[in-house]
Amino acid sequence: MAEVIFSKLGKVYSNGFRAVHGIDLTIRDGEFMVIVGPSGCAKSTTLRMLAGLETISDGEVRIGERVVNNLAPKSRGIAMVFQNYALYPHMTVRENLAFGLKLSRLPKKEIEEQVAEAAKILELDDLLDRLPRQLSGGQAQRVAVGRAIVKKPDVFLFDEPLSNLDAKLRASMRIRISDLHKHLKSSGKAATTVYVTHDQTEAMTMGDRICVMKLGHIMQVDTPDNLYHYPANMFVAGFIGSPEMNIKPSTLKKTAGQIGLTVGHYVLILSPEQQTKVESYCGQQVFFGVRPEFIHVSLTPFAENHSQGELVRMENMGHEFFLYIKVDDFELTCRLPSDEAQAIISEGLHQTVYFQFDMDKCHIFDAKTEKNISL
């Protein structure tokens, strides 16, 4: 059993700065939990408190049945993979993998077996006699992961482990680490994983669940799919997704007995379900959010429920285009498949285009609390 529980976990530094604000989080046994957020949100500080590398100011951390607040890192049953690999430069790959096991005074045969098992899982067999300086960045990171595996910890901790790799290697290592987690889990071994990153692509592709943090607070904990489609607040809506969600100020207005959003000079009528949820906000300023792929664009007006603007920029991404439409004093980002965009881009920039939202995919946020009131 390797469930991890944060209860009112807080961190205050000696200068009085509070980095973590009494967070509660349960990471299930065998779960791959990703903690994600912008720089300075205290995600690494939170991980380091779990690892025992930062003191805990408030609350407690439990690993399994034990409160580990006052335990040394080596006694917590964790293994950590760092951003900078932290390999011993004078030791071969084999010696790096075996080092921690030797400190634990395991029998030589058992050490050899565990090193061989980790090397096989991570395809390091041909690298065992090399020194770290003879390895590529991806190979060095695999060795760092292997060093964690051989310890057979209760919990794996990853602190931005891929940020030093190029884009292609990052994609490859994402798959390797995800596959490793699935392999350990399917073989009945401890597989609880806490992975910290600022990269939302890593978070969305790797995590069973994702914990989004901002300034030491947890904004939302949910599956990747739910975070994307049902963000609890404006911060999560804007942080998750690339290109990011369009979030713009608007007013909820009643027209002919129906409630809609003001977008430019038009009022876009909400779905009946949304109207029921936001009725009490009618007449108030709100923020609306819509993802770029849920905006339809045309050179001619739609039959109903549309607005218009000026096409001011476009980006060719190969399989799709990003179109940027200026509406009054703000700009909308639209995401269209290449074949759908061709008719529009062939007319060039600075033309009037018409757009329509998938209204049931729009989100409406309270202007003061930033809470998603359309859920």
What does this protein look like?
- With 375 residues, the protein is an alpha+beta fold.
- It folds into 2 domains: 4-239, P-loop containing nucleotide triphosphate hydrolases (Rossmann fold, 3-Layer(aba) Sandwich), CATH 3.40.50.300; 246-366, OB fold (Dihydrolipoamide Acetyltransferase, E2P) (Beta Barrel), CATH 2.40.50.140.
- Helix content is 27%, strand content 33%.
- The protein has helices at residues 43-51, 93-103, 108-121, 137-150, 167-186, 200-206, 224-229, 234-239, 272-278, 338-345, and strands spanning 4-12, 18-27, 32-36, 58-63, 66-67, 78-81, 155-159, 192-197, 209-214, 217-222, 246-255, 258-263, 266-269, 285-290, 295-298, 307-316, 320-327, 330-337, 352-357, 363-366.
- A hairpin with a 2-residue loop joins strand 12 and strand 13.
- Helix 2 (93-103) packs parallel to helix 4 and helix 3 (108-121) crosses helix 4 (137-150).
- It is elongated.
- The two termini are 35 Å apart.
- 37% of the residues are buried.
